[in-house]
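Homework help board

Subject: predicted structure for assignment chain

Our instructor gave us this sequence and asked us to write out the predicted structure in token form, then describe one feature. I got the tokens but I'm not sure how to describe them. Can anyone check?
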Amino acid sequence: MGEAVAVCVPGLEKRFICSFPDCDVTFNKNWKLAAHLCRHTGETPFVCEYEGCGKGYTRNFHLSRHLLTHTGEKPFWCRADGCNAKFITNSNLKKHIERKHKNQDKQYVCDSEGCGKSFRKHQQLKIHRCQHTNELPFKCNHEGCEKYFISSSKLKRHEKVHEGYACKKDNCCFVGSTWTEYLKHLKSSHAEEIICQVCSKKFKRKDFLKQHQKTHAKEREVYRCPREGCERTYSTLFNLQSHIMSFHEEKRPYVCEASGCGKSFAMKQSLERHLVAHDPEKKKLKVKRPRPKRSLASRLSGYVPPKTKPKIAGLNDAEKTGHAGEENDPPSVETLTLS
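My token output:
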């Protein structure tokens, strides 16, 4: 490692000279030379001790500045009227003042005839000029691709088409051309088995397992059949509705037409699930509830519309509520404790 060499020159202050070959840089402070020598040796003596970080720096000042990113402290405040901006370093504060408070007149102005629009950033002016020239400034450099884009961010997004989305699983060389294709690959080739730890039943999705686990809970919410003398309980309104129609009302209008079967069901969804037994290739039922369309203003306002309560076929008004005169309420929910 090179050493700091102090050389006294008459009429000048002491100079510290780097002794590495082909480097004649000099400094007026010893600590400046020590920091410079780290560029030659690659050493970073000032290391961040935060867990999981370990970044190193050649100067203690740089480490102190870095530590603020962990603490979240921003000690440099803008003093301009009405501005509460805070910054980690004084240099960032100075840049802010120059850009926001001092150089308001130094803006990027479009020089196209009859335009004169001004922008705070050169990038904004560059994008604006496309309106006059009809030329997009950012070209894809991939061989054989002639596409242009209005901004660098859109170019970067496009470049993913050429790079692709590589699968990160071990020993898998799949590269998807789109993010959707990549997700489909993960789902089909690397789907993790989701197994109930109580009964070992397998599920395709975690939310299905979560719903299933309620059946093993010591205490769970259930819907009790409102018909007089019936003590049956169900974990879903769908199962309750099916019970009432098939058992109490003896209505099973949906009949399986498969040869030699003839089973009947109270609910259409139950028949469709049953048909999978005859045709394993048939996709299982996916129930999609239509979502009411909402205006953009409604969504941006944060307003959450009230949920509509489900209607239960086979129940009269009194049975739906347990109280005559109150309409459209679902059957009462009870908490059942399993021994």
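Reply (TA_rk): Your tokens look well-formed. For the description, you could write something like this. The first helix runs from residue 30 to 41. That's the kind of observation they're looking for.
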